[in-house]
Amino acid sequence: MGQQFIKFAVVGAVGFVTDLLIFYLLVFVNTEILVARLFAFWCATMVTWLGNRFFTFAVYEFGWFKQLIRHLSVSHLFGMVNISVFYCLSLMAPLFLAFVMGTAIAMIGNYTCSKFWVFSEREQKAAT
After folding, report:
1. For 54, which of 15, 22, 71, 120 is 20 to 30 Å away at the CA?
2. Which residues belong to any copy of the GtrA/DPMS transmembrane domain (predicted)?
């Protein structure tokens, strides 16, 4: 995994902080908890796409739209895992713990799909 995974984790941490701050801000202003969670997740998804595109994988020479659609697909797939874990745990554990566990469980699948499909060097070469 190495250095690329560390970069992915750094981008993920920025996305996590974005997600967490927006979520708690929306909860603070009395937004329904799942609406707040979904909106915060979508904001974080855009932050992580940009970070992974330009920093982690540095794959920005082929169709950005196709890459964005793939990123959104992977993010939403693992986002469902993330939010499902979050929701189930939030019924019996502190919100922060539920938030962290949902994010951690989804991270490995997200990295694997990002590396081998969303930001694949093979895909980049095929597009050029």
Report:
1. 22
2. 7-119
Please check whether residues 38 and 13 belong to one and the same domain: yes
Residues 45 and 89 in one domain: no
End-of-domain residue from the set 61, 85, 111: 61
Considering the entire predicted model, what is its pTM?
Answer: 0.75
Task: Write the single-letter amino acid at 4.
Answer: Q
Are residues 14 and 45 both part of a single domain? yes
pLDDT digits (tens, 9 = 90+) for 55-108: 999 877 768 898 999 999 999 999 899 889 999 999 999 988 998 899 888 888
Range of the domain at 69: 62-120
